[in-house]
Amino acid sequence: MKKKTTGWLGHIAELRARILWIVGIFLAAAIVAFFFSAPVVAYLIAPAKVSLVFVRPGEAFWVYFQVSVAMAFVVSVPVLLYQFLAFIFPGLTPSERKWVWWSLFPVIGLFVGGVLFAYFVLVPMIYSFFMSFGSDLLKPMISVAAYISFVTGLVIPFGVVFELPVLVALLSGLGLVTPMFLAKYRKYAILIIFIVAAFLTPGTDPISQTVMALPLIGLYEVSVGVAKIIYRKKQKAKARREAEAAAAEA
Predict the structure, then answer these.
(1) CA distance between the termini of the chain
(2) 27 C-beta neighbours (distance < 10 Å), count
(3) CB–CB of 29/75 below 8 Å?
(4) Whole-number Å distance between alpha carbons of 58 and 178
(5) What are the angstrom distances between the C-alpha of 158 and each of 64, 75, 112, 222?
(6) Considering only CA atoms, which of 199, 91, 111, 207 is closest in space to residue 155?
(7) Angstrom distance (rounded) from CA 185 to CA 181
(8) pLDDT tens digits for 119-168?
(9) What distance lies between CA 87 and its chain's CA centroid?
(10) Side-chain half-sphere of 20: how many Cα atoms within 13 Å?
């Protein structure tokens, strides 16, 4: 009993040390990034095509701080992944380790793809739609904090929702969902997607919500395809095991 407790204490101490490493790297990266945040802010606000303003004394500083934190997060992701994998790998089987390694590539690729798609396609499209309401009566005077919040409010969530195929693949591998289940409840999934798009979209207009919902529907269909592939492989493996068992009994 004492040995088990010592083991748990060891795991907790190891987890604490790894968390401290992650936090330390993140804080150091945030401090360094602050001094290089100006060109990043200039790049982010360039698509606005208008002179942005700040309406509170600390607003400009807060924008640079937000961008520095975002840059630090990007820099810290490899450290976070390394510390996480180093912590869980001793308790995984060789096949589970292989699954984790292979899942890293689509997880990172889909997140980056979602961020790039949102920044280069959705942000200009939705921003242009909103700006089209400007006139001599309503002149746009957008604050830099509002614009950065608008961009991050689209880019970050879209990077996260692009992970849907990986999530479905994981659930399919665990046997929690099947392609038949996903196909059966497709209409409910589309309804949920539009509701999620309504929450993620900075505006309340149906056009921007639809623009965000359509790629998510496409991701759902990709997820159904991924589930079909995994389901077929599991069925073939099951049939092979049954055949081998039958041959062994004969």
Answers:
(1) 46
(2) 12
(3) yes
(4) 51
(5) 22, 20, 10, 16
(6) 111
(7) 6
(8) 888 888 888 878 888 777 888 888 888 888 888 877 877 888 888 888 78
(9) 22
(10) 6
As to burial, measured by CB atoms within 10 angstroms (0-12 exposed, 13-18 middle, 19+ buried), residue 68 is buried
The stretches of the chain forming alpha helices (DSSP H) are: 2-34, 37-45, 59-88, 94-117, 123-131, 144-161, 164-173, 179-184, 186-200, 206-249
- Identify the CA nearest to 120 among candidates 238, 231, 215: 215
Residue whose structure tokens are 């804080």: 27
CA atoms within 13 A on the CB side of 61: 3
| Residue found under tokens 């961009």 | 151
52 φψ region: left (φ > 0), alpha (ψ -120 to 50), beta (else): beta
Q: At 247, list the tokens.
A: 């041959």
Tokens 């700040």 -> residue: 54
Record the tokens describing residue 34, joined without a space: 């602050």
Q: Which residues, at least 6 apart from 60, have a Cβ–Cβ distance to it below 8 Å?
A: 54, 144
What is the value of pTM for the model shown?
0.71
* Residue 205 pLDDT level (bands cut at 50, 70, 90): low
53: helix, strand or coil: strand
Contacts of 67 (CB under 8 A, 6+ apart): 33, 37, 40, 41, 44, 148
CB-CB neighbours of 67 under 10 Å: 21
**216: Cα separation from own chain's centroid:** 13
